[in-house]
Every structure is written in structure tokens, then in C-alpha cells.
Design a protein that fits this description.
The protein is mainly α. It has one domain. The chain is 76% helix and 0% strand. Helix 3 crosses helix 9, helix 7 packs antiparallel against helix 8 and helix 8 packs antiparallel against helix 9. The longest helix is centred in the C-terminal third of the chain and has 26 residues. 50% of the residues are buried.
């Protein structure tokens, strides 16, 4: 039996929709906890269950955007969003994503995906090692953002430029490959900018929510959305994110960093594996 048998515009089997709904909830819980939309995991699950690729892209980006909004609100209420970083890193990310998407046809997509996968995998391993050594950024908040706030002149300009450049580069690559790439933004916030992991999680999800809020427009216009499935996945993902984000503040920094690292290792391996399988390497 499909949704179409119930009078709804979708040919997805109901048992498949049930599996996808449960998976979306679990991905939402994990994503809310670590501050990632985890759209890569949801996209892969949709493809594995047999949903057509064009429908997957449009449905997934709406679900990811909706879940990120819930996570952003939850983290913001918990004081885990630094608006200064949202501006200095987020705005260049939007610009970069637009440029990257506009000129995506000029970029070697397979090479970009492999590079992103390798970088995410490496950064994930680095975070796992950091957690194993029990070394973490200043738990009082964002060392980088505090430095920006208290510095002036060339020092403040330099720190702002670092955040903006990182945001621009991640946006360019993400726009070219069609991913928000929060899995690159998280380690950049922690490792390069010295942001507390909890602040990094909330700030990253806030930026992802703003990016996802505009990414669905073209897909809706082209009709690449399965609305009954999207509704189920969005609701389950939003509930999951709301639950997961509550626990970000309740675990130790080492536990949070370890979880982030393990998730990123999985995402990196998934990107590389999917690329190799798609090219017939397996």
C-alpha cells in the first residue's frame, strides 16, 4: 500500500515511509545533540530505501532546513548561539554558497566530494583524538568571539577576516556539491577559532537553518518534493532535534567532542564510500 492509495500524492510504500520516519527521528536526535543537520545521513537513507534521486534532494533539503530551525531555536534559548559568529561566518557562507552553486558546472564535482569527505574524516579523527587526550577549548564560551569583542583595530579585523574567509570557502564548496557542510564548519569553529564545542554546535545549527531556509525554493518550483513523505520526515526530525539539543549542555565537553568526532568520521567515510560505489569501485 502506498500514500497514493490513501488519496495522497506519493507512490512511496507505507512500510518504507515508516522506516524513513523512524530513521529521520533518530538522525534528528543525533543532529540536535552535535549541532548538525546530518542531511548526508538522511539523503543516503532515502536513496537506499529506493526514493528517486530528484525527489530525495528536494525532500531532504526541506526536512534538513525545518529540523535546523528547531535546533537553532533550542540552542539559542540555551545560550549556545553566538550571533557575532553567525554574522561574520554565516553571511560569507551564504555568498559563497550562491557563487558555488551558480558555477557548480565548472567544478570537478567528484574531486570536490572526495576532498570534502577526506577533510571531514580527518577532522573527525582529530576531534576523537582531542577527546581522548581530554583537551578542550575554554568551557566558558567562545574564546574567538570574546577576542573579537574585546579587541580593536587590526587585531579585530584580522580575527573577523579569519572567520569570514572560512565561511566563504565552506560556502563555495558546499554550494558546488549541494551540501550545507556543517560537518566542516563545526571543526573549523572548534579547532581553528577556538570556540567552545557547545557554542559551536548551536552557532553551526543556526547558520545551517538560515542556509537551509533558502535552499528549498528551486526544488519546490521544479516539483521535486514528495509532500506526504516530507511532512512525516520533517515532523519526526524536528521532534528528534528538539530532544537531542536538550542534551548538548548536559554532557561533558569530552563526551560532546567525542560524539562530534565519531559522527564526522562516519560522514566522511559515507561521502567517500558513496563516491567510490557510484564510480563502480566496488
Amino acid at each position: 500500500m502506498t500514500f497514493d492509495d490513501l488519496g495522497l500524492p506519493s507512490d512511496v510504500l507505507l512500510w518504507k515511509a515508516g522506516i524513513l520516519t523512524a530513521a529521520s527521528f533518530a538522525i534528528g536526535v543525533l543532529g540536535g545533540f552535535v549541532g548538525l543537520s546530518l542531511s548526508t545521513l538522511r539523503l543516503t537513507t532515502l536513496l537506499l530505501i529506493g526514493v528517486p534521486a530528484p525527489i530525495v534532494a528536494g525532500t531532504n533539503i526541506i526536512v534538513s532546513g525545518a529540523s535546523s530551525v528547531v535546533g537553532a531555536i533550542s540552542h539559542y534559548r540555551g545560550g549556545r548561539v553566538n550571533l557575532r559568529l553567525v554574522i561574520t561566518m554565516g553571511l560569507p557562507s551564504f555568498v559563497g554558497a550562491f557563487i558555488g552553486g551558480f558555477y557548480a558546472h565548472l567544478a570537478p564535482e567528484d574531486l570536490l566530494i572526495f576532498a570534502v569527505g577526506a577533510l571531514v574524516l580527518w577532522q573527525g579523527i582529530e576531534l576523537v583524538n582531542m577527546a581522548g587526550r581530554e583537551v578542550a577549548p575554554d568551557a566558558s564560551g567562545s574564546a574567538f568571539a570574546d577576542a573579537v569583542a574585546t579587541s580593536s583595530g587590526p587585531a579585530k579585523t584580522s580575527r573577523t577576516a579569519v572567520a569570514s574567509t572560512i565561511g566563504l570557502v565552506i560556502g563555495l564548496v558546499g554550494g558546488a556539491v549541494g551540501l550545507i557542510l556543517g560537518s566542516l564548519r563545526i571543526p573549523a569553529l572548534i579547532r581553528i577559532l577556538g570556540v567552545d564545542p557547545r557554542i559551536a554546535a548551536g552557532t553551526n545549527m543556526f547558520i545551517g537553518a538560515l542556509m537551509g531556509a533558502t535552499g528549498w525554493i528551486a526544488h519546490v518550483a521544479r516539483g521535486n518534493v514528495d509532500y506526504p513523505l516530507m511532512f512525516l520526515l520533517a515532523i519526526s526530525a524536528m521532534i528528534g532535534v528538539a530532544i537531542g539539543s536538550r542534551y548538548t549542555e548536559r554532557v561533558s565537553l569530552q563526551g560532546l567532542i567525542m560524539t562530534m568526532g565519531v559522527v564526522m568520521v562516519g560522514i566522511g567515510a559515507l561521502l567517500i564510500g558513496a563516491l567510490l560505489i557510484g564510480r563502480g569501485a566496488f
